[in-house]
Amino acid sequence: MEFIDTMLMTPGPVHLDAEVMLAGARPLLHHRTDDFAPIYTECVNLLKKFINTKHLYLTTSSGTGAMETAIANSFNEGETVLNIQTGVFGVRFTQICKAFRLNTVELKCEDGKCVKIEQIAKAIQENPAISGVTVTFNETSTGIKNDIKAIGEFLKGKNILLIVDGVSGLGALEYDHDNWNVDVTVSASQKGFLAPPGVGMVALSERAMAKMESVKCHGLYFDLKVYKKNQELKIPAYPWTPAINVMYSLLEALRKIDRIGLNVCINHYAKLAGGLRAALKALGIKIFTEECATSNVLTVFYVPEDLNPKEIVAEMVNKYGIRIAGGQEQFANTMLRITTIGNIGERDLIGTIGLLEMILKQKGYLKETGAGLKAMMEYFMANEK
Q1: Are residues 150 and 280 in the same domain?
Q2: Contact by Cβ (8 Å): 230, 40
């Protein structure tokens, strides 16, 4: 059958509630008036609160645009940057750095494992010209959560900027920009902040603000000096035409998170992730990510031997209206990914695992269905509050 509303169980965009989507259907306001300024300002202020930062700017872009903004405003051509690669998005930071003619040092971590402080220390010792470190907080290609707090503590007192890709982690995992000694954090609207794609976010420390003022940004659209000037006007403004309707939805989503409580949302996602992993283990399915670094944003797991992940993804969406994700790039033929963030709850995870079990039985991997569901429901009941 054809589904009107496919349930997104992907790491982003995530499944959104109707109130957030309908907020985006409001009539347009002109973006250079005091009608729109309060919407823009409230989005900025709520994000500052959730991230814990004093300086934050919004861009009209996806998360990659926010990543590019961070690099464009943090380094002059010829500087050396250490790129920590724990998956596809760590590699993307390297690509952006090279596009801005920076010297890159690539720290490639073992598949499924987070970066260790010892690895960073060794890279910096061997490359004393390093003036910045980029790292992914939550890596959706591998299911890894890197320990940003520990990295920030290690870099404290060093003349090295810490740039964090928080696109999929912020809003879903505990994070503290200022107290973790992060210099630049980037994120976007379509994942943990539960809004449609289209708005990027860049938070800066005092040190990053000072560096930004001295950097010759290669380009105008993402030059944060222009954003700063406009945001400090009597009527705070976005320098270009913003994604107005997306910002309507973003504000609705941020207000909802604020009403519920960010920590309540984070704990809810942790519960869903624990239930999902309990189900997969009960089904004998191997999780890809090392346990100490496994993120609650999603779980990445191996497809049972002799099964095609692309076929499973297609059957889940075409038969049952549930969109799970395949692996990215080099993991495309061996992995599946299921998110545990968004406007979802226990019922959605129970439905996803139940239908996945049906497919696995039809394909001959399972003799009987129900083991995963049983483990998941027992986990949920044991962790009710």
Answers
A1: no
A2: no
* 335-339 vs 325-326, strand pairing mode: antiparallel
Amino acid letter, residue 4: I
* Contact of 376 with 350, CB cutoff 8 Å: yes
**Residues 297, 301, 304, CA angle at the centre, nearest 5°?**
155
Distance, CA of 203 to CA of 184 (rounded, Å):
6
Q: In the sheet that 55-60 helps form, which strands lie side by side, from edge to edge?
A: 55-60, 199-204, 184-188, 161-165, 130-136, 80-85, 103-108
Q: Over the stretch 311-364, which tens digit does the pLDDT of each residue have?
A: 999 999 999 999 999 999 889 999 999 999 999 999 999 999 999 999 999 999
Full domain range(s) for residue 49: 18-258
Q: How many residues does the chain have?
A: 385
Q: What angle do CA 302, 333, 269 make, to 5 degrees?
A: 45
**Do 303 and 206 fall within a single domain?**
no
Tokens 């907080």 identify what position? 137
Torsion of CA 379, 383, 384, 385, to 10 degrees: 180
Is residue 199 domain-shared with residue 66, that is, in the same domain?
Answer: yes
Sign of CA dihedral 271, 275, 281, 282: positive
Alpha helical stretches, state H, the chain: 18-23, 37-51, 63-74, 88-99, 117-126, 148-155, 206-214, 224-231, 244-260, 262-282, 309-320, 346-362, 371-382
**Residue bearing tokens 């690895």:** 119
> pTM of this prediction?
0.96
Measured N-to-C along each axis, helices 224-231 and 63-74 cross at an angle, to the nearest 10 degrees, of 100
Tens-place pLDDT, residues 182-197: 999 999 999 999 999 9
Q: Encode 88-124 in three state secondary structure.
A: HHHHHHHHHHHHCCCEEEEEECCCCCCCCHHHHHHHH
What is the torsional sign of CA 91, 75, 148, 67? negative
Examine the domain organization and report whether 281 and 253 are in the same domain.
Answer: no
CATH number at residue 246: 3.40.640.10
57 Rama sector, left if φ>0, alpha if ψ -120 to 50, beta otherwise = beta
Q: Provide the number of structural domains found in the chain.
A: 2
Measured between alpha carbons, how far is 128 from 333 in angstroms, rounded to an integer?
Answer: 39
- The C-alpha atoms of residue 183 and residue 99 are separated, in whole angstroms, by 21
Instruction: Report the alpha-carbon distance of residue 96 to residue 32 in Å, rounded.
Output: 31
Beta strand 138-139 pairing with 130-136: unpaired
